[in-house]
Amino acid sequence: AQSVTQLGSHVSVSEGALVLLRCNYSSSVPPYLFWYVQYPNQGLQLLLKYTTGATLVKGINGFEAEFKKSETSFHLTKPSAHMSDAAEYFCAVSPSGNTPLVFGKGTRLSVIA
Amino acid sequence: DARVTQTPRDKVTEMGQEVTMRCQPILGHNTVFWYRQTMMQGLELLAYFRNRAPLDDSGMPKDRFSAEMPDATLATLKIQPSEPRDSAVYFCASGSGQVGVGHEAFFGQGTRLTVV
Asked: Which of A10, A22, A71, A113 is the most buried if burial means most Cβ atoms within 10 Å?
């Protein structure tokens, strides 16, 4: 069975600082990996996804993530945090078959001015 | 602007009442998911459909929950009777179901259900 672990339910960074949100997965097959963002009272919006090919994936709003098979990780980063980045971030995994996304518990990102 | 539409956005109901939540998936998407979000459990998959056929509803309490797709443009999630523990945000999501896209899901804005 696939699962996702997000280390840290709450991360706080200063505006302009590096954002690093951690995600580790378990999957019996090469996975498809996703990061979603949720703003208050909104649905989830796709930030970026890894399917195949290049392991460094760039997404919207300056975010990127790197798939590291040896570490079973897919950490999300952004060089410089903006106040507008404050939100809940979810990592998700789907095997290459026909199974829906399995989500992590989420990490709440706070950005301090 | 293609989007998943959910109604109602908010619902407050009394315990024991029937609740119906509706979802209009993105036109052309053949896969529909229902997720429930709570503080304790996070996002849980309740059920999903492909080409209107239920593929997995193992996440739903069978005695009170039911999910259907009367047609390709409408998915419904019904709770009867509702209980306070059903209070949560219910999300519908749709996807194209294309092989190789790993079930990327496009989410609606959710229905916030409060059962008192």
From this structure: A22
